[in-house]
Amino acid sequence: MSLPTARQADLVPQQRRPKNQFWLSSIGFVAPGVLLVAVVLYLPFLWTTYISFTEYNGLGDPEFIGIENYRDMFADPAFLNSVLNTLYWVVGTIALPVGLGLLIAVLSHGLPNATLFRLPFLIPYALSGVAVGVIWSFVLQTNGALSQALEFFNLPGSELRWLLDAPLNTFVMIGASTWQGAGVNALLFGIGLQSIPKEPLEAARVDGASGFTLFRTMTWPMLAPLTTVVVGLSIVGSLKTFDIIWGMTKGGPGRVSETLALTMYKETFVNNAYGLGAAVALFLTVVTVLASILYLRRQLAHSRSI
Amino acid sequence: MRKKTTLAAAVLTAAALTLAACSGGGDGDNGDGGEGGDPTEAVLSFYTDKAAWEPSFDDMNAASEGTTATLDFTGYSDPTAYDAFIKQSFRTDDKPDLFTWHTGDSLAQLVEEGLVAPTTEIWDAAIANGDVTEELAENYTFEGEQYCVPLNVVYWVMYYNKAVFAENGIEVPTTWEEFMAAGQTLVDNGQVPLHQMNIIFEFVWFQAILAGLDPDAYNGLSDGSVSYTDPVVVEAMNIWHDMQSDGFFIDPGVTTDPQTLLQTGEVAMAYFGTFFTGQLTDLGMVSDTDYGIFTLPNVSADLDDTSVVVETGPLCVGAGSANEAAALDYSAWWMGVDAQSAWSESRGDVSFNPGATVTDTALATVTEQVNGDGFLQLRRYLEATPTPIYTVASEQFGAFVTNNGDPMAVLEAIQAEADAYWAEN
């Protein structure tokens, strides 16, 4: 009896493959991985979905209440404000950390020792979001470093209550997030710029393109695949923003600077309304997945058409 | 044959991995303090959200040696994560023997689910022995039975910077008028009189003013017999509003620690629980030298007793835990004079046991005062208020501290939630 060849073992792809003699054992090998994914990913999702239709305080048994949590959620002005703040974060994160990252990458591209230029922007990325929040709350608190500096230089704005008034507090927190996140986007765009073939750019230069025209007509389209990834990651990241806000305002004063991720956390673990928290979690998941699918579909379709 | 061997290997691998994943970390060590065991030999699994207090619990292990069980300490520094952990632990076979918790609605939920062991016999003996007051027992009583024992007790009093008072020629106020006059003097001299926060403790000035204006109304809010829009509650809010308008409080955007603000004199006074003494001591401030303590005078001069807000946190025994009997024995020991004197010395804090020795003279004076005649102890607003109402109230008070908006709008928003809550409960 000889060992089966690859073709005999049906390892070579075929159409309508019949079950081979190893199909049963292969299930055994795959099962641990499938079980792991089912237990740590699918089951929690299904459980959260179920909990969102119940009243549950984390003790005893959940009580089924239908769509009441969803009704309460959409009727709560604080939730709607949380949606608005999340929208600010999505727009702000795309405009600032991504835009600034691109600017840093483009300006430093081709410079001697470009890494040294980009490195300072990358250092904040090594900090945790909560640490960034704590540092920036020292700067932005009333009579904090920023207000004192503005007052010292007789500049306007020293009287502003950066972390107390909405939506100003959300905007300055997006600023803190930009401080942390722009560097890594610059790094990614820098890699993208390095991977662009030189020949088309040279040809464009010969044709007279330079400066912003060269960037707009040649560099930017060729960066598109990487931009898709960076923007896609930023959208998902901004939709679930939590740590910086938790470190700076905890969603307050009151609930004015909450985002959906904070609302989910506070309803679940602070207010012990696990059902309502699960409803917010599910809403956030649907929004994140939908946004990602819509964006990636559009971008990938656009890339294919180029 | 080969096929069968492969299949068997695959199935065994899968089964082994699944079993390994599903098997818990519990080693089944129940200690020796289970039913009928010697409690002094038992090691209790003890959980708390007061991670920074580990040295004090080490001291208590030294104090309990040979008398009762010892504690195997696990501390959490994030209260929210801790609460979730304790709740989850009751869904497993590895229930905590002993753990710290919160009075009010949070404890009621555990009692309702039968998750904590009753301690009525321990309380009866302690009250008979004079180790604890009957008033304190109310925080732990549900349908006539007591659950858990007090871990600690905190009296909410006024801390003041002695140097700032001396510089401004201010004496410790004994009436509300004197208190307001002192505040005005400080404002006139460019000194911020009072500390307050727009998170965590945003409710405390509502609590302080209403308790000193009408303690019956304050209590009535916690059982729904009084509305947040009743005239006396509105009056309390208006007093708070006026104090904010008159510059009595520090800007809530200043997030510097309150103990630092009091030490540096950026605020002259801070209304806090007696746990604040430990925070001031950590900064090197000396009681009765650098800072003093006084009980806040009543807003209404017509009241016979001065209202003092009391906060207490429970030490609970997990029902059906591995060392339940030993944990109950430990709870009984904890209530006694020896344990409480050791605790008070280690923490530098007050004790619920009137017989315990409190080393800090200022705290000892406060303890004697508030437990004597002429004082009325009231539950802290956080524990006295049903959770859904408190959730809305803390948001509303946080916004009120920040923006000093319309008091009536704040009260109406809280009352809307209270109406919904009391309609169902």
Key traits:
heterodimer; A: 306 residues; mainly alpha; MetI-like fold; two-stranded antiparallel ribbon; 12 helices; 2 strands; 1% strand; B: 425 residues; alpha/beta; D-Maltodextrin-Binding Protein, domain 2; 2 domains; eight-stranded mixed β-sheet; two-stranded antiparallel sheet; globular
CATH class placement of the domain at 84-264 in chain A: Mainly Alpha
What fold name stands as the CATH topology of the domain at 84-264 in chain A?
MetI-like fold
CATH architecture designation of the largest domain in chain B: 3-Layer(aba) Sandwich
Counting DSSP E segments of at least 2 residues, the number of strands of chain A comes to: 2
Strand numbers in spatial order across the main sheet of chain A: 1-2
Q: How many DSSP helices of chain B?
A: 19
The largest sheet of chain B is: 8 strands, mixed
Oligomerization state of this entry? heterodimer
Class inferred from helices and paired strands of chain A = mainly alpha
Distance between the termini of chain A: 56 Å
Low-confidence stretches of chain B: 6-34
Query: How many strands in all of chain B?
Result: 10
- Name given to the CATH homologous superfamily of the domain at 84-264 in chain A: MetI-like
Percent of residues in β-strands of chain A: under 5%
Helix content of chain B: 40-55%
CATH architecture descriptor of the domain at 84-264 in chain A: Orthogonal Bundle
Question: How far is the N terminus from the C terminus of chain B?
Answer: 68 Å
